[in-house]
Amino acid sequence: MNKKTVKDIDVRGKRVLVRVDYNVPLDADRNITDDRRIVAALPTINYLIDNGARVILVSHLGRPKADESGKADQSSVKKFNLDPVAA
Known about the structure:
By secondary structure, the protein is of the alpha+beta class. It has helices spanning 36-50, 74-77; strands spanning 15-19, 54-58.
């Protein structure tokens, strides 16, 4: 059984959820130091847009530590915000 790709599906007018790996390295000023993961996702994203899909991207950035209750430590939440990789 062959795996399907986005090119095997009619995406016109459909919402397409894409899990992208934007967990990229950042410097001390939160500038991206290596954008290869972002660039690697562009052909898929562009194909979907060019073929009429409404694209929703899902990713994460880093691994925030949990506090005693198991929730993300609020002091580190901003550090892991996706703003540096969002357009």
